[in-house]
UniProtKB/TrEMBL annotation:
<feature type="transmembrane region" description="Helical">
    <location>
        <begin position="20"/>
        <end position="48"/>
    </location>
</feature>
<keyword id="KW-0812">Transmembrane</keyword>
<feature type="transmembrane region" description="Helical">
    <location>
        <begin position="126"/>
        <end position="146"/>
    </location>
</feature>
<protein>
    <submittedName>
        <fullName>Uncharacterized protein</fullName>
    </submittedName>
</protein>
<keyword id="KW-1133">Transmembrane helix</keyword>
<keyword id="KW-0472">Membrane</keyword>
<feature type="transmembrane region" description="Helical">
    <location>
        <begin position="60"/>
        <end position="82"/>
    </location>
</feature>
<feature type="transmembrane region" description="Helical">
    <location>
        <begin position="152"/>
        <end position="169"/>
    </location>
</feature>
<feature type="transmembrane region" description="Helical">
    <location>
        <begin position="94"/>
        <end position="114"/>
    </location>
</feature>
<feature type="transmembrane region" description="Helical">
    <location>
        <begin position="176"/>
        <end position="196"/>
    </location>
</feature>
């Protein structure tokens, strides 16, 4: 059991690596666009390694890494087409937009994955928990766009809440204590969301 938990925590931290690197580069003075491209490359590598190794990605990290993979190329591409107002709009909302990507990813997983958004073994068991996590993701998205405070409160806090909620729901589904295994993934998830802070 302890070995399994350690493996899970290491996997969660590995999935958080693209965002952690993004934070380090951005806060270290590397340009936002360059940091975004590096994060996109790392996200592509993480997603590819999950595919070839057939390991199961944390669904929340999956949404975050898809967001990191897409956001910089899309914004740069739109600017290159001369659609600068659209590009600036997407850039302004790219921070909070991670919840839209998480929500879209969760919806697709709930509909088409046998493990659902929550990541359980069968559709019958996962559906109620996946729907709860989807609802929480929608609330997190609404909170993030409506809350005009510091990025830590508008993004990192609800993101960490989603990671904690997923742990509690999985523990409940398995009949375990909801307090087990709450430490590392929420912290890693909060770190991945911290880059969404506007620095305030």
């Amino acid at each position: 059991m302890h070995v399994f938990k350690r493996v899970t925590w290491v996997k969660d931290l590995a999935e958080a690596l693209p965002s952690i690197v993004f934070i380090a580069l951005w806060r270290g003075g590397v340009g936002l666009e360059a940091a975004g491209w590096i994060a996109a490359l790392l996200s592509a590598m993480v997603l590819f390694l999950h595919q070839v190794s057939q390991t199961r990605s944390n669904p929340l990290f999956l949404g975050i890494n898809i967001h990191l993979l897409l956001v910089t190329p899309v914004i740069v591409g739109i600017h290159s087409l001369g659609m600068h107002e659209v590009g600036r709009f997407l850039e302004t909302n790219s921070y909070n937009g991670v919840f839209v990507t998480i929500l879209a990813t969760g919806g697709l997983l709930t509909l088409f994955s046998p493990r659902g958004f929550i990541g359980l073994e069968s559709r019958q068991s996962h559906l109620p928990y996946s729907l709860i996590l989807l609802a929480a993701s929608a609330i997190a998205a609404a909170w993030s766009f409506a809350f005009a405070g510091p990025g830590v409160l508008s993004v990192a806090l609800p993101a960490t809440g989603l990671f904690i909620l997923r742990r509690v729901l999985i523990a409940h589904a398995k009949g375990a204590s909801g307090l087990l295994g709450l430490a590392v993934a929420p912290v890693a998830g909060g770190m991945t969301a911290a880059w969404l802070s506007d620095g305030s």
